[in-house]
Amino acid sequence: MDAHSRGQADDIDPADQWVLNPDTGNYELRLDHSTGQSPAPRSTTGSRTDAGSGAGPEPSATAGDTAPPRADVPGQRSRRAGKGPGRNQPEPPAAAAGRRKRKAVKGKNKSGKKKAMLWTGGALAFVLVAGSVGGYLYYEHLNSNIATIDVAGAGSGGFKKGEPVNILLIGTDKRTGAGNEGYGDAGSMGHADTNLLFHVSKDRTNATVLSIPRDLITDIPDCETKTEDGTKVIPGATRQRFNISLGQDDRDPGCTMRTVTELTGLEVDHFMMADFNAVKTLSTAVGGVEVCVDKDVDDKKSRLKLSKGTHRISGEDALAFVRTRHAFGNESDLSRIQTQQQFLGSMIREMKSGDTLTSPSKLFKLAEAATKALTVDTGIGSISKLSDLAKELSKVPAKNITFTTLPVLDNPAERVKVTVVLNEAEAKPLFSMMQNDVSLTEVKKKESAKDAAAKKKQQALLKGAKAAPADVRVDVFNGGGPQGSAQETLNWLQNTEGVLKSSNKGNAPADVSKTTLEYAPNQADQARALAEMLGLPAAGMKPGTEDAEGLEAMTLTLGKDFKGAGVPITGAAKVSSNVQKVEADKQVCAK
Predict the structure, then answer these.
(1) pLDDT at site 243
(2) Fewest C-beta in 10 Å: which of 22, 49, 423, 449?
(3) Closest C-alpha among 247, 249, 245, 250 to residue 262
């Protein structure tokens, strides 16, 4: 049984895959049976690879196209055996060096290097590149595939282990690649059409993938860009669509990164950018992505045609699936975002599957497709840095990767609803969870003795009857929070929590460091209900000694520890049930 059939690639040296093409006089990469691997299907991997130019095989225009016929090229083994027209040609020096380096790696180190290169390039559809890469020549070839942009604000040293990681994945509407002329904006340099902030927790137990609608009206800050003549600052813009944070007025991906940071409060470390062609080439390289549709689909605009049920799609069909706006939901960009999340979740499952990780031919195809598909910042612009990053990201189980969408509302300034605005009451708790590494899914963590004691005290405090929100009376004072905190809290209490008997009393007589709730003994049920909403710790509860009379309200004083309405004073934030959540390990049918 060969290495491919066993799922082993330890004895395959990528330098052995480079053979002479007698038609061109160049050495080319060949993944054929003579080297212990399955041949790469010509219909999906494209044309020849020119070793001299450092370019990899170009993807075909559409999935299923047949590559033009070419002269047969003898494998490496037949050349050594004295067969074929290339038998007397000298071996490329780089290939020989790669093979010598491979042989020098023995035992544990050899296995470790193989595992180290299995996950290369990041996470999600644009990030996972895999390969058992021992040969220097092939390693450098992959490096040459990666396009980079030097942007202000991106980390220059890769990333820090043991720290949270925030990567912005940008899908642009730029029309590169054969067969993509009919898509996107013909005059665009590429706008931020699809945007996902991929946040990985410090302990690598969980990740949250936040989709940001392209039609969100937001402020775009000033941003510094690097040009051949030096650096220049591009002025910001107020109340503009998010997608013009890239491409418009020469804004680069660093401008989009800064816009996301201003919006979410999360410092974005790096970006990864891809265009339409990436969806086609990556879905083809992985052998197709399984999707499920709840009904028959025949969308003339995206050219997506699927019968009800489960399908494995790639190439043009995959692109049509992630682009369609009229096949599912309310035919809006928000519905398309959910469809894209379902596709990416399935892509993650496919890339983490044993069928992919134990197939050398799939790994090589992915390495080629993903390195060509990506444009990244210079801080992670090499195979070694992408490999280190991807190994960290791959520690997160698929079941703990949660897709969600930025909470938004229809733009009240528009008569015909086209754009959306931030729903602050629901967005702020979500931002807080991401900032504090709190998963949107249940993740079992070891609880410290201190945390356990505080939790026990809080549970004892809240034990007992709780008043209905409509029966809670409270006056809100700002005693140290940001300007407008009392009104912000009032809006949240009334509009989100249903505490209608609440009032904004302005600034407190003096600032306080901690948020407190003062209440009378006969208001204990109201205090328990409000404390639970606020995430108020036991230390913030201040019971009085005399019962309240009549319609007297409790007093809530917001301290310097106040982070925002709906954001718990302490403990984990709780997002609204309206916030959409989908785990990456679950298949959801598009409706």
Answers:
(1) 93
(2) 449
(3) 245
Rounded to an integer, what distance in angstroms lies between the CA atom of residue 141 and that of residue 135?
A: 10
Give DSSP secondary structure letters for 240-290: EEGGGGSSGGG--HHHHHHHHHHHHSPPP-EEEEE-HHHHHHHHHHTT-EE
CB-based contact 17:138 (threshold 8 Å): yes
409 touches 307 (CB < 8 A): no
CA distances from 454 to 378, 448, 450, 457, 538 (A): 44, 10, 6, 5, 8
Gyration radius (Cα) of the chain, Å? 28
Cα 76 from Cα 89, distance rounded (Å): 11
The enclosing H or E element of 340 equals helix 333-351
What pairs with residue 167 in β-bridges?
A: 198, 270
Give me the pLDDT at residue 248, please: 86
Note the pLDDT tens digit of each residue in 282-298. Answer: 889 888 999 999 999 99
The tokens describing 362, both together, are 């799939």
pLDDT tens digit string along 193-251?
889 999 999 888 899 999 999 999 999 999 988 877 778 899 999 999 999 999 888 89
Q: What is the pLDDT of residues 460-475, one digit of tens each?
A: 666 788 999 999 999 9
Please give the average per-residue pLDDT across 121-136, as a whole number.
35
Name, in order, each residue with C-beta under 8 angstroms of 492's C-beta and a sequence gap of 6 or more: 425, 565, 566
Write down the residue that tokens 């754009």 correspond to.
419
Please say whether the beta carbons of 568 and 432 come within 8 A: yes
Q: Given CA atoms 362, 43, 381, 261 in this order, what sign does their dihedral have?
A: negative
For residue 29, which of 44, 43, 13 has the smallest C-alpha distance? 13
- Please name the residue that has the structure tokens 């990416």: 344
Contact 438, 572 (CB under 8 A): yes
In whole angstroms, what is the distance from residue 243 CA to residue 255 CA?
Answer: 11
**Burial of 410: CB neighbours in 10 Å, binned 0-12, 13-18, 19+:** exposed
For residues 515 and 540, the answer to whether their CB atoms sit within 8 Å is yes
Whether the full predicted model's pTM is greater than 0.70, yes or no, is no
